[in-house]
Amino acid sequence: MDVLWAPWRMAYVGGGAALAGCIFCPLPDVSDRERLVLGRTPVSVVMLNRYPYASGHLMIAPRRHTADLSALPDDEYGDLAQTLRRSMASVREALRPQGMNVGMNLGACAGAGIVDHLHWHVVPRWTGDTNFMTTAAETRVMPQHLLATYDALRPAFAWLDDAR
User: Which position among 57, 65, 119, 121 bears the catalytic label?
Assistant: First the structure.
């Protein structure tokens, strides 16, 4: 029998993964790489999902702590939309996916894991990237370590370095 080891998942399934405070809001003394933050604009933050559906699963959120998409001022929404669009181009450049899922879950009943801070998900997809494991064993097989994905994506997000 083959064994699939994913020890980093225990923090998630055991409930011990929660950081103090919101994952999208600044944390003192934690590096961007540790937090998986690829970069920021004055309004937005782009980061990898620590518990991804596929390698390269990004989240784009406003830097301001808010759950209300409809209340965002036009300039903030515009920055977020532009950051989402450019982030998708960066993922295409760095990872060469064959497609992408892009979406947002607003509210707990809609599936939001982080209810108080809205965010878009960008999930790169490749033909054959899912198999029976997800449906039969409730397990995801990630072909690349999370920090290796961060290191592969970070250069493609250099455009965020000057946007702060």
Answer: 119
